[in-house]
Structure formats: structure tokens, C-alpha cells
């Protein structure tokens, strides 16, 4: 646009110069000399000169009009070789999304001021969701796809499952990459939702060194990617950063009470380090970041038998097994339904605030109260069985969500009694489907 403007003004000046030239070069031959200075040239020669000058003027005017009216026109690129074609396609995509970071690198990004060149339709955002095959990630992917975005899921399937995403297979706006975030990856995206990390104690304690590597090296890799392509980065941290809290409910300004050498530290301290890295990339390198501290979340597609209390109780009640309560059952937790969390994550990503933000449901339940709700919803005859408590299990957990309410306009809308029935049919189908498979397997082996 700027170049076309300058070329047209150049033309106008040139025009000006041309129209002046005859007068300045020779006052005798100019057709524009005034009548009180009669010209020596006259007759057919003069009228021919006048005609030529007029043609020139009209030509210049048409050219100027053309460059103003067609700013985006450019010579057709030579796409004969595959490499040139690929480069052209990457460049076109980058232009469409409003950034040419693909070609110029993060530091040289061009701001198109929201204008899409003529003939190019604006697409949705390109978003990577690490851990997108897991419980929370797959629900987030559903929302992003239904909003019209293009989503790339990066997952190593440690706890995630393709079945959680199978309904998107074949959608051109969806891609699934089997990849471990501990290894670097380069993708051209506008936003990164970084969820990859086993979230339940059973899974994160399975290989603690791998868990902390995922949290530290995996987060470093994703922040590096954000820096390289100029993407906005959102970290899903956890209420576990508050440890066994000495403040109740927990506000974001509370620094926590975490055992740095306990069996849960690979997760708690891993997430704390991930938060530190995120803030250092933001402060030191100007990366746009967002931090969510997620409190206990439940819903369809949670791993069965992963040691998280809601999935445990629901699976046990459906299987007609006793509900196992650890300790005296008086420790409290707050439970948020997954769609509320996804709404909070998306508001945080799209909003202007870095965080950290607590995202959780402040409704607080003791484990015994939760067991009673499960009895009400699934099986009134379910028995409760007490077991010794696990190490470093926090006594109380309840989010203060004032900050999210005020700055994100977000709060949960689904109560535990409304949300639990929504996950029962998914669990019933998976449990009894799996049991059928298991029995047919054992029948085969006998
Ligand atoms: N669900 C909750 O209650 C809760 C609470 C607090 C924080 N969070 C956080 O939210 C995120 C998602 O949790 P979730 O409940 O969906 O857990 P999940 O275990 O269902 O999902 C985690 C996903 O990450 C993938 N993953 C793990 N390690 C990976 C690696 N190295 N490379 C690539 N992929 C990897 C898993 O395969 C899985 O798909 C996690 O970061 C978790 O810490 C969840």
C-alpha cells in the first residue's frame, strides 16, 4: 500500500515535471504559453504537440488511478519448483493469519492492522493444545473447533486417548501429532494451550522424574516455541502449587506450603517451576503469557481408576464396589465441572491479564459429603470403606475466585449435583464396555 502510494505520487510529480518541461525548456515551443506571449510555433505542429501532451496526461492519470484502486495486486509468483510453491503457501498462510512470523521470525513481525488483503478470507486462529488427547484438553479442543479455529493436538498418549478426539478425525481444521513435549517441536500457531502433564497422583507418581521433566523441559520447549513464532502461551498450573495451604480459601497472592522433597513434589514443584519459567519468559523476553491455577475438575472422559476422588467414587458406585475414603474423610475439596473450566481457560487466553488466576468451583465438600452425593446420584446402597490417608494429602482446598470474577467475568455455573449425572453415562459406557472386552479376552485365553 505504502509503495503503491509512493509510486503514484512519484508519477504525479513526474507528470508535473513533464508538463512543466516544455515551458521551462523552451518558452517558444510550449503549447501552454499565455496568449500575450505569442508562440512562434503554430498550425499543425502546435496542435500535434498539444495532442501528445494531452495523451500523456490521460495516460498518467489512468496509471495513478490503477495503482490506487488495486493495492494488493502483485506479479504472479513463479511456483514452478516445489520449494518455491511451499514457501509461497507458508507465506500466504502467514499473511492470512495477520502475521508473517513464518518468514520473518518473531522479532520482525509485520502488523497488518487487522486488514486482510483483497481476495483473502480471514480464517480462525491456529492453536496448539499440548495434552489435547487428555480429559481437559479434549473438551477444550471441542470448544475451539466449534468456534471455527484450527487445532493441532500434541500428545504422547501417556494418559490421553485417541478415542477422546476421534470425532474430529477427518476434519481439515484438526490435526493430531504423537509427540513428547520433552522434545522440541516447531509449529506455526497463534496460541499455545500447554496442558501436557499427567494430572492424577497415580499417573504423576508412576515416573516422577518424567513428570518433572515434562513440567520443566516440556514447558521450556513450549515457551521457546511461543517466542519463536510470536504465539500467546497459556500454562495450566494447579491448585497444588499451594501445597497443604495455611491460608483458606486460597488467594492467588498466597505463596503456598509445599514439601519440596515429598512424593508429590515432582508435580507440585514441577508446576511451580513451570510458573516461574512462564513469568521469566514474559518479563525477560516479552512473551504474551497466561497462567491458570486449576482446582479439582471432573466430567466425562476422565481416566477411570486414576486415583482422583470423583472418578474413583463414580466408577466404584457403578461397579457396586465400596467407595474408598482415605483418612477420616473430613478433608475438603472443591469440584468444578469441566465445561466451566474450559470457559475460564478460553476467557483467560483471550483476555488482557497474565494471571495467575484460580479457576475452580468454590463449593466446598468433605470427602464424606462427596460420597453421599455419589450415593444420591448413582447408588443409594453404595457402602463407604475407610483407608489410611496418603502422604502429603492436603487437608483443605477451596479457591478464592474473586480475581477471575472481576477481571475475566468468569465464575462456574454447574453445581456438583448437576454435574455428576453428566459424567455417569460416559463412565457407565466405558466401564461396562471395558468389562465386556475383558471377559471376552479371558474367555479367549482359557
Ligand atoms: N483435571 C484436574 O482436576 C486438574 C487440576 C489441576 C491442574 N490440571 C492440569 O490440567 C492439565 C490437564 O489435566 P487433565 O486432567 O486433562 O489430565 P490428563 O492426564 O487427562 O491429560 C494430560 C494429557 O497430557 C498428555 N501428556 C502427558 N505427558 C506428556 C508429554 N510429556 N508429552 C506430551 N503429552 C503428554 C497425556 O497423554 C494426556 O493426554 C494438566 O497440566 C494438569 O496438571 C488438571
UniProtKB/TrEMBL annotation:
Pathway: Nucleotide-sugar biosynthesis; UDP-alpha-D-xylose biosynthesis; UDP-alpha-D-xylose from UDP-alpha-D-glucuronate: step 1/1. It is found in: Golgi apparatus, Golgi stack membrane. Residues 19-39 have a biased composition (Low complexity). GO terms for biological process: D-xylose metabolic process; UDP-D-xylose biosynthetic process. The keyword Membrane applies. SUPFAM superfamilies: NAD(P)-binding Rossmann-fold domains. It is an enzyme of class 4 (lyase). Its EC number is 4.1.1.35. GO terms for cellular component: Golgi cisterna membrane. Its cofactor is NAD(+). It is a single-pass type II membrane protein. CDD domains: UGD_SDR_e (cd05230). PANTHER family: UDP-GLUCURONATE DECARBOXYLASE, UDP-GLUCURONIC ACID DECARBOXYLASE-RELATED. Belongs to the NAD(P)-dependent epimerase/dehydratase family. UDP-glucuronic acid decarboxylase subfamily. This is UDP-glucuronate decarboxylase. It comes from Punica granatum (Pomegranate). The lineage of its organism: Eukaryota, Viridiplantae, Streptophyta, Embryophyta, Tracheophyta.
